[in-house]
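Follow-up to my post from last week.
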Amino acid sequence: MADIKTTDAAHAAWLKDMEAASRAKQEKFMNGIAARLGHPRTREKPAHSFRGAPDFWRTFEWSLEERVIRFSDNWKSVGGHVVRLSNMDEVRAFIADKGRELGARLVVRQNQPELAALGLEAALPEARVSVWNSDPSEHWKARAAEADIGVVMADYAAAYTGSVTVLSGKGKGRSVSLLPTVLLIVVPVERLATRLGEVLANFDRAGREQLPAGIHFISGPSRSSDIENDLTIGVHGPGVVYALLVG
Amino acid sequence: MKVSLFITCLGDAIYPRVGEAMVRVLAQYGVALDFPRVQTCCGQPAFNSGYWKEARTSALTILDAFEDSDFVISPSGSCTGMIHHYPKLFEDDPAQRERALKLQAKSYEFTQFLVNVLGVTDVGATFPHKVTYHPSCHGSRLLGIKDEPMALMERVKGLEFVPLPFAEDCCGFGGTFAVKMADISGAMVTEKADHVKETEAEVLVGLDMACLMNIAGNLRYRNEPVRVMHLAELLAEGANLG
Amino acid sequence: MSATGTAHVSVKERAELALNDEFLRKAVKFTTERLRNGKKNASADHGNWEEWRERGRQIRLHTIANLDYYLNLFVDNARANGVHVHFAETGEEAVRISLEIAERKSAKSVVKSKSMVSEELHLNRALEKIGVEAIETDLGEYIIQLAGEMPSHIVIPAIHKNRYQIADLLSEVAGERLEADTTVLAGFVRKKLREKFLEADIGMTGCNFAIAETGSMVLFENEGNARMVTTLPKTQITLMGMERIIPSFEDLEVMATLLPRSATGQKLTMYMSGISGPRRADDADGPDEMHLIIVDNGRSLQLGDPEFQELLNCIRCGACLNACPVYRHIGGHAYGSTYSGPIGAVLTPALNENVAEWDDIANASSLCGACYEACPVKIPLHEMLIYLRRRKVEAGHGHKLEAAGMKGFALLMANASRLKAILALGKVGQKLVVRKGEIRTKLGPLKGWNSYRVTPSLPRASFRDRWATLDQEIRHGLQELNPEMKRRMEQAVKRREQGGGAGHGGH
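User reply:
Got it. Predicted complex:
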């Protein structure tokens, strides 16, 4: 099969054929479902009176301090580390110390203004700090894979489950929060909600067109209990994960 | 008020002492049970094995037996639970289904009737023994009988209650399952009896003689001296109603 | 149908093997016990569990009842996101489409994250056949792939293996002796699979939920391998059961509340990812091309079937396996198919529509209802097992001896006087085997029962024999009905008449 060389054009043509076949099949498939369900095809959005969490849950909210405490407890309970910092200067100092302490040689960070303003290149003179997707000729997945530390900004966070949300984008690689050995996530506390549902509601509100390709909730270090139910940390993703709560 | 006894086939043939204990406990409060003789079996063995036609034949005797009863009381959560399946069993027969729904609404397991209807929790019994309790699956899961037996045992003087580890796990009886899957059932009842032994209780009580026959059978097989009885028996004996 | 297994051997025979494997029983017991307690604690800790369960059930019921609308909406949105959507009515068709994509992409290797649908299709075997290396990357799945086995648990595939067996398997891959230490073994797999992720041509995933309104696929995982598989290779193929749909991200909050707590007792898995199409033009990672194969393979047979439609509500958490006392004793492989435990016992015959072939799985249950109680979306599996048994009997596939026995049962139970007569006969008959009030013989029909128990003998008089005497004694000197109790009884009757019917029990 290795001898089948498909040119881009041939491949595009094949995809087009497949799509035509798929669209034809879609009608048949949906009609079949409706027939089995014993009703004509539902074309209008059906009334859904049980959408989302129960009502009592929607009004549940913690104060900011409570959110910080609960988030930290949850994060630590699964083996993550939490540091509370008051401003971005402290974040810079913390990352610099951590980098030195771990002897980090390669650091990759997202291309985000908050992180650019940290000036990590100057703060970590012994390490090479690369900025995700800043040079289109670079092999970025490989850069992230060899990095000792990845630095990302959290887009959202939820205290109740102890989760941070990161969205993908041009300057925001999925690999940066996944491939390095150590992950540092900067979480401005004003982005910390109480419930997971508060974060999820953003995506319903935004609608399909506005969604990034990847939305990732991270709740601590990678783990597995697949061998004798014995917990192992850092199976595929980062094993050391810091949440830096700022503000 | 016509309060009828649904004795169940096991209660009739093998454990008449349980029905007798129920009769005596309820008589204390002026409740005289009626016993319609046309009743046979609830039909569960056939129903659970997939033989619904046969189950209906048997179930009809129960529908007939309790047609004009106000309350139907049984010493088994499982057999009462079977009555809850009657509307489904007769789903294609509107007339019988109607009767089934009526019967379901007036059927109670013994402790449900005693505690929830009559409001009795203290029968005035004394039973100075170490006792553990197995909550049978159908009674506890299908009928939701959880607090009733506890409330009754709490008020028995001298009774030392020891919780059964993994109490909610099935004893492995499951009707024809015990015969068809004898080895799996055997492993389950052995585990259950191990837990009973762990409690060092002198007495094991429950609300279903099928499960108790199963566990007692395994305990006897291993020559374990634990006494196994229905809660109605314990209450009757403790209140000197024998 | 592709959800094949080892139906030619009976559950009873496979269970016997398992029951004699002391290690397997201990391992399964230990892990299911931990998961079961984890779930109990997590649901109690979260609170209002019954309300959440009911909410989850309602969302699933609503979506499946309108599946033609929601699936169609999902497909349109996924396509708008740039996903190539394919429909597979059968397992074979899903395999054929997957292979065609692999061939078109000249793929040498495929890295896979956990997918029960892929297990259902036996896709790895098919890929290997055309020379494509298929690598399972979930730690547990990787282990059983090396062992050449099927998963024995939906969530913990290698639940039946100990670390010594795992060390043997991995040492063979490593070409050196690895210590039987979990950290060492997991560390080796991390390194080994890291290379595989980076060089693979295709990443393949399952799909926990699909969000209709945005065309997003949602994956729950703890290891990060599903993220690897959806981030690194240039092509992604996602296999999705046609019933995985939920309407919105809001609904996902309910599923995210139920699934991890029910599966492992976690508040949320370490990673939950929502993937909405291939990488955007400016993105530097994520797949260039994304295929989604929507698989029926027997699922649509449940639609419109009032007894089995709810089966499609399953969110594959494995809580019913962990709660099941039968599963605990025999493990997953005894069920002989991809899906094991109570859900497998119902799903396998239902998907395959060959009740006769798989019927004995439905017998491997004491109908204790622990599965229903554990299910986060309240699927009445214990009742479905009875419906399966009934369908088998109605289709004429009943066991001959049992059918004859049940006819006898009906004859006997149709009439109380016949029952009385047979009991009288039994009392005479049992004299041959009763010793000190017990029956211990292992001959005849009591063999299975008496291998673990003794049987009580029939008492001298049955209840109905004693009734006349007892009734006379009780009525003599019976006090008047306690007025308070009389009032309570009248109230109960009134409540019942007002339609509060079975309020005293029943689910």
